[in-house]
# Entry
Amino acid sequence: MMIPGVDGFMYPNEVELQWSILIVLYPYITGLVAGAFILASLERVFKVEAVRPTYRLALLTALAFLLVAPLPLQLHLGHPERSFEMYLTPHTSSAMAMFGFVYLWYLTVVLLLEIWLDYRADIVHMSKTTTGVTRLVYKVLTLGSDNVSEAARRVDDKVGYVITVIGIPSAFMLHGYVGFIFGSVKANPWWSTPLMPVVFLFSAMVSGIAAVLVLYMAAMKVKRLPIDMRCVDTIAKYLFYTFVIDFTLEMLDLIHRTYEADESFRSLDFMVHTRLWASHVLLQIGAGTVVPLLLLAATQLRRFAPGARKAIYSITSCLILVGIFAMRWNVVIGGQLFSKSFLGYTSYKMGLVTREGLLPAVALMLLPFAIFFVLIKLLPPWQHSEANAAD
Amino acid sequence: MRSTFRDAAHLLRPAALLLIGLAVFLVVRAAVIPKGFGKYGHYRAPFLETARSKPIHYAGQDACVACHDEEAKMRAAGKHAKVACEACHGPQAQHADDPTSLKPKLPDVATLCARCHEKDPAKPRTFPQVVTAEHNAGAACNDCHKPHNPHLD
# Structure
């Protein structure tokens, strides 16, 4: 009997994909978090002063996406309330359970605390200058302390530094884990490689930096404020460096697979040339990697006019964001398209308004932007208040 | 010294908040984890009682062999020697406890044999399989094969 969408031989449990587009979103979103946070830490820990204008923006971006990161998994679970049991009775041999704690640690101890410490002066200032409900919100956010003396701010700065230093390995773990989950599925040759966590990590940094870069430029455009060219040039430089490393790692993986050519190779090679051709070769490698890398390289080699640079940065960042999404897609969906017998291929039929369909995926992808919008209203990242300007 | 403390005192607030969060978590955890969880392993120990109180469905073939000597001998001589009685006859614990209260319904040969022997490329090549539609030409399998020893000479 012929099964629609299936070519060759599939084991019965392989015909239908169990990991949907929501599972594609999950590493994509956590990647943006890790990348944005690492960009923020550039300023804080590595003292790259030029990226200062994006420091707060990057933190808020990380927070907005981090809040949404577990939602695709919850929706995929179908029984979201059960995920809580992972915290109650965690199994030490379960990477997923351990990740729950990394997530909470990262959210509360790293990100929220760092944002609070950085914004404290502004929050206290707002709690005194606003009225009504807004005032109440800020009052709560001060946690009841309005000591923003110079000495107190110095303490905040020191503690904030320590937290960022702790935060970098935490961000690495946060995304390294996501790669680990795939890399450790030993039955699946498309996933099972120890390079997976490293590749995920660097692609996370690339996507996060690109996201903050476009968000910064877009926000400046909307607010009609001048774009700090020194800042975007520096970000683009770091984006280029991390992207080169990411690209090298992915090529290393590819060359290694091709050279090793184990029993899965013919099957995977065929898949890349057929079902994954558009999303892997055209989108991920062509439009999402080679083109942006060439554009970024051009800006490093030649000095373009600011207008041209802005245009190039916007285009590359958007291409990168699409390319990294394609990369997540190819990992998650690609890994389920071929039979573990290497004798057949299935296809992914995405629902539209089903629980794991396109519509919830789009909604989940828009949600961080809504949160981001609320956050920048509450904690404006651009103008530094008088309290901050003083120090 | 005193002033250093005063200027760092606000840090106690998020710390306290975290600790309160942790305490609430621990209290909730203690309240909702079922009794006996983790006593023997990563599950509820009292569930063993629940499982034990459920009715037994399978008697196991040692029980069948004890009474049905003839079928047992026949099966032992053929290729079905390692196929358990209840794999074909279904769960018969109640019958084994009290044979007269429940006389088992005999399996329907029309579907039974094909369940294991229908041709399927995913099965090991050495496993005996037939395309039933072509193999028996509509006759019942047990017209030719004896279920307890299917070998034909």
Q: What stands out?
A: Residues 76 and 101 of chain B are 28 Å apart (CA to CA). The interface with chain A takes residues 3-4, 6-11, 13-14, 17-18, 21, 25, 28-29, 32-33, 37-38, 42, 121-122 of chain B (CB under 8 Å).
